[in-house]
């Protein structure tokens, strides 16, 4: 995936970038990810850059004996929480982690699954209301997503051909000359000779770095694309 960005050469910072809907779809999918997933996937790739104390909390749950938890399913629920938008995120052009839409579990009794409450869980060994553990897998095929558009090549959240401006602080704006000049003015850029355009290759590592930086930094694009050393 390509990302075109304007760079302030004097201050070694990203002023803003412009991209199509594919990259912005990846940015927007950050909102669908449970924090446990964020800590897990960024911690495995970028262990030297913890997200505050959340990495410590995650590791503590990993090391905690299940004896202290209400059920075994609680540990899975905390460390591997399900993404409710997984069925949509599988269509991203760049997948930063692999997660198939989850199946469900139920206790083996047909009464439980056919009851009015439809007693199912996304986590194995959760307790059914009947008091038994839900360990029998069942796959429920999701209904087809209904779209108002007939274009099968649209993006996940945005239309495929949409161009978007992304500021260094991850503000997302429709592209326009006035928006670009407004961003440059707010950043105090007066001399156009200090600006250069660069094109960056964006892969999984860059997106994970951007995800983590977006939680702890005011300049996530700069830290991701220019690898600025503090």
From TrEMBL:
Domain of life per record: Eukaryota
A Pfam family this chain is assigned to: DUF674
Family annotation (InterPro entries): DUF674
Protein name: DUF674 domain-containing protein
């Amino acid at each position: 995936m390509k990302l075109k960005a304007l760079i302030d050469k004097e201050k070694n910072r990203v002023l803003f970038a412009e991209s199509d809907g594919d990259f912005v779809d990846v940015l927007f999918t950050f909102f669908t990810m449970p924090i446990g997933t964020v800590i897990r996937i960024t911690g495995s790739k970028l262990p030297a850059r913890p997200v505050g104390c959340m990495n410590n909390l995650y590791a503590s749950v990993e090391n905690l004996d299940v004896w202290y938890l209400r059920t075994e399913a609680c540990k899975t629920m905390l460390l591997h929480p399900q993404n409710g938008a997984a069925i949509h995120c599988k269509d991203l052009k760049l997948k930063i982690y692999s997660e198939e839409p989850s199946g469900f579990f139920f206790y083996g009794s047909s009464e439980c699954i056919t009851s009015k409450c439809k007693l199912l869980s996304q986590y194995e060994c959760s307790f059914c209301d009947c008091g038994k553990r839900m360990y029998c897998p069942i796959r429920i095929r999701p209904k087809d997503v209904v779209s108002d558009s007939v274009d099968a090549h649209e993006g996940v959240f945005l239309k495929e051909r949409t161009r978007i401006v992304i500021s260094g602080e991850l503000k997302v704006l429709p592209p326009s000359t006035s928006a670009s000049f407004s961003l440059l003015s707010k950043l105090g850029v007066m001399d156009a000779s200090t600006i250069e355009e660069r094109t960056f290759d964006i892969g999984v590592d860059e997106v994970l770095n951007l995800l983590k930086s977006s939680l702890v930094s005011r300049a996530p694009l700069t830290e991701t694309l220019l690898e600025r050393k503090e």
